Amino acid sequence: MALARNELRPVVKLRSTAGTGYTYVTRKNRRNNPERLTLSKYDPIIRKHVEFREDR
Fold first, then answer.
1. Around 42, how many Cα atoms within 13 Å sit in the side-chain half-sphere?
2. Closest of 19, 53, 28 to residue 39, by C-alpha
3. Which of 25, 36, 45, 52 could form a disulfide with 20 if both were Cys (CB 3.0 to 4.6 A apart)?
């Protein structure tokens, strides 16, 4: 029996703001972070840390 995915902690895509199209996939808690998530992560295409924003 498979467990149902919890809608309180959905899977979100984080897309690079550098325009390279690189994405990370993570989960977020909707109760603590109802707005779009932004994280500083490494973009291997341009070899720098840039801001990644949640893509809907």
1. 2
2. 53
3. 45
Q: What residues does each domain of the chain span?
A: 11-55
pLDDT in tens, 23-49: 999 999 999 999 999 999 999 999 999
Roughly how many angstroms between the first and final C-alpha of the chain, as a whole number? 29
The token duo for 5 is 């995915």
CA-CA-CA-CA torsion for 24, 30, 33, 39, nearest 10 degrees?
A: 0
Q: Give the SS3 label for residue 47.
A: coil
Q: In this structure, which topology does domain 11-55 adopt according to CATH?
A: Rubrerythrin, domain 2 (2.20.28)
CA pair distance 14, 56, nearest whole angstrom: 9
